[in-house]
Amino acid sequence: MKLIIGLGNIGAKYQGTRHNLGFDAVDAFAVEEDALWKEDAKRKAFIAKVIVQDESIVLAKPTTFMNRSGDAVQALTSFYKIDPKDLLVIHDDMDLEPGRIQFKEGGSPAGHNGIDHIYERLGTKNVQRMRIGIGRPEGSMAAEDWVLGKLSPENAPNAIDTVAGMRDWIEYGLETASNNWN
Question: 159-172 and 174-181 helices cross at what angle (nearest 10)?
Answer without folding.
Answer: 150
